[in-house]
């Protein structure tokens, strides 16, 4: 490619972590005014490549060029000095600081030896409003929703005034309204000659937003696709190196089956009001709604993490109030949180320990542990849930996001969970792994497991659910059958 037409180029970049080769001779480039999507399965090397480009990591081999000139970045600050900044997937804001303070952290405007806070706040709001005009600049970052925190992180990257922005799963925590705002910003940024590397597992937005698509597989570059001429099936096949059947679910009529969970008039001031629904044995009840609809708040209340002001929850006909999560688990109901890394896994423990940690009493003898029994249980769920592992003694962090999610699922199935509340269970997971998880859930519901499935992705909710509970600003707007809804009608109901 002509260097003069290239804003940035990575040539033959490799990265090794000990004996693990995360990248092998990968070359990518980006032109001014271009959105270049980088796709691949979990573990393909996308984030490693982006972390090298933004200065977080140094390559083992290869070179980086900005405007045709070779550069070496020893820190993100050096990359920002060269006009490159990243909006990472992981939230890394300072919770105690305000939104504006987080956006301008390390880049405050000074007047002499002192910070000019008025000018700093005005500058921060300019960048914030370029992305979202509803978030208050004086709000504490720790009090924001995950979606709002993600938008603030994007605004912080924008505040560096970089001409090359890296977006790593930027819409994973966003729903349609916030995603459209981000799209609009990226298109404006592109029109000014700015460039963007864009990583996402949401293939529809890749096709809608990108000018070029590069595909990585197992740390290597395997090809480039034209978004105007390719399809989701072709993208998935190239990412996986094989044909992958995208999961779909045929909605079932389960009204004749017993009700396993009944929620009546559940209210918690400031979060949700008068929420009622029933979940039948073997049913997948999708829960849809925009950010702030109250979906996660309802789930946490049912599970006993918070207390309702009014209303009741019946689990298998038992109307006793759920006192805490341990009580809910004992009664067969489990909640898998949205924040898998922070609230779902034990990162310092092994795969086996993560899977069996809720059932250790089963393997404890008077003076010994039944390690063989633990190993048999782990092997059973690795096989049943098709978890891809090297060794059960490997750390849980060695697994891809999809396989981590399967381990958490196995943990609670081993605990004899009968009702699962899954909060964004496929967030940050590639399409093939998502399809595998949805296939596993389909087989589990066929065996009688009941699932409440919370997701911000309309297509996903329609694919997995029998019925859909639609929420808006803490209230239930309806519970239509999936077969009667489209993405458009579901969005209209969620925004009504």
Task: Describe what this molecule looks like in 3D.
The protein has 2 domains: 233 residues, Rossmann fold; 237 residues, P-loop containing nucleotide triphosphate hydrolases (Rossmann fold), CATH 3.40.50.300. The chain is 33% helix and 24% strand. The chain is built from 17 helices and 21 strands. The chain has a 6-stranded mixed sheet with strand order 6-9-10-3-11-12, with helices on both faces. A hairpin with a 2-residue loop joins strand 1 and strand 2. It is globular and about 70 Å long. Keywords: ATP-binding, Cell membrane, Membrane, Nucleotide-binding, Repeat, Sugar transport, Translocase, Transport. GO terms for molecular function: ATP binding; ATP hydrolysis activity. This is ABC-type sugar transport system ATPase subunit. Belongs to the ABC transporter superfamily.
Q: Which helices and strands occur, and which strands form pairs?
A:
Blueprint: E1 8-17, E2 20-30, E3 35-39, H1 46-53, E4 61-66, E5 69-71, H2 76-81, E6 84-87, H3 99-103, E7 110-111, E8 114-115, H4 117-131, H5 146-159, E9 164-168, H6 176-191, E10 195-199, H7 203-209, E11 212-217, E12 220-225, H8 232-240, E13 259-268, E14 272-280, E15 284-288, H9 295-303, E16 310-315, H10 325-330, E17 333-336, H11 340-344, H12 351-356, H13 371-384, H14 401-414, E18 419-423, H15 431-446, E19 450-454, H16 458-464, E20 467-472, E21 475-478, H17 487-495
Parallel strand pairs: 3-10, 3-11, 6-9, 9-10, 15-19, 15-20, 17-18, 18-19
Antiparallel strand pairs: 1-2, 1-4, 4-5, 7-8, 11-12, 13-14, 13-16, 20-21
Helix pairs in contact: 4-5, 13-14
């Amino acid at each position: 490619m002509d260097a003069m037409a290239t804003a940035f180029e990575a040539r033959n970049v490799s990265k090794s972590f000990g004996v693990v080769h995360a990248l092998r001779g990968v070359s990518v480039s980006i032109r001014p005014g271009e959105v270049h999507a980088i796709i691949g399965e979990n573990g393909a090397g996308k984030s490693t490549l982006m972390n090298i480009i933004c200065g977080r990591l140094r390559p083992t081999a290869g070179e980086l060029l900005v405007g045709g000139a070779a550069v070496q970045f020893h820190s993100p600050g050096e990359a920002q000095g060269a006009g490159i900044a990243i909006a990472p997937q992981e939230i890394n804001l300072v919770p105690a600081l305000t939104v504006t303070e987080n956006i301008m952290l390390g880049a405050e405007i000074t007047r002499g030896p002192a910070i000019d806070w008025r000018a700093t706040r005005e500058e921060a709001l300019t960048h914030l409003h370029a992305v979202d005009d509803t978030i208050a600049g004086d709000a504490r970052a720790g009090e924001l929703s995950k979606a709002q925190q993600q938008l603030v992180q994007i605004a912080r990257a924008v505040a560096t005034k970089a001409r090359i922005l890296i977006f790593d799963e930027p819409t994973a925590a966003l729903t349609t309204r916030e995603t459209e705002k981000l799209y609009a910003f990226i298109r404006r940024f592109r029109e000014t000659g700015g460039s963007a590397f864009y990583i996402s597992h949401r293939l529809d937005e890749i096709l809608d937003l990108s000018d070029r698509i590069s595909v990585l597989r197992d740390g290597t570059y395997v090809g480039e696709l034209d978004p105007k001429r390719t399809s989701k099936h072709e993208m998935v096949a190239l990412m996986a190196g094989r044909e992958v059947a995208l999961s779909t679910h045929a909605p079932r009529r389960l009204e004749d089956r017993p009700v396993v969970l009944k929620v009546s008039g559940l209210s918690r001031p400031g979060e949700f009001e008068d929420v009622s629904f029933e979940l039948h044995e073997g049913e997948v009840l999708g829960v849809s709604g925009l950010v702030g609809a109250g979906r996660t708040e309802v789930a946490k209340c049912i599970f006993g993490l918070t207390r309702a002001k009014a209303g009741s929850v019946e689990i298998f006909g038992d109307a006793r109030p759920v006192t805490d999560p341990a009580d809910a688990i004992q009664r067969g109901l489990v909640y898998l949180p949205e924040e898998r890394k922070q609230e779902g896994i034990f990162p310092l423990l092994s795969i086996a320990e993560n899977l069996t940690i809720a059932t250790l009493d089963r393997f404890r003898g008077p003076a010994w542990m039944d390690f063989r029994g633990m190993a048999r249980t782990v092997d059973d769920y690795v096989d049943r849930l098709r978890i891809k592992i090297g060794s059960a003694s490997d750390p849980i962090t060695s697994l891809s996001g999809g396989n981590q999610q399967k381990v958490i699922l196995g943990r609670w199935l081993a605990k004899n969970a009968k009702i699962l509340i899954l909060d964004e269970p496929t967030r940050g997971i590639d399409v093939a792994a998502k399809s595998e998880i949805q296939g596993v859930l389909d087989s589990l519901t066929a065996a009688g497991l009941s699932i409440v499935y919370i997701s911000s992705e309309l297509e996903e909710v329609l694919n997995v659910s029998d019925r859909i509970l639609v929420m808006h600003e803490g209230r239930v707007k309806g519970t239509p059958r999936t077969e009667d809804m489209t993405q458009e009608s579901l969005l209209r109901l969620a925004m009504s």
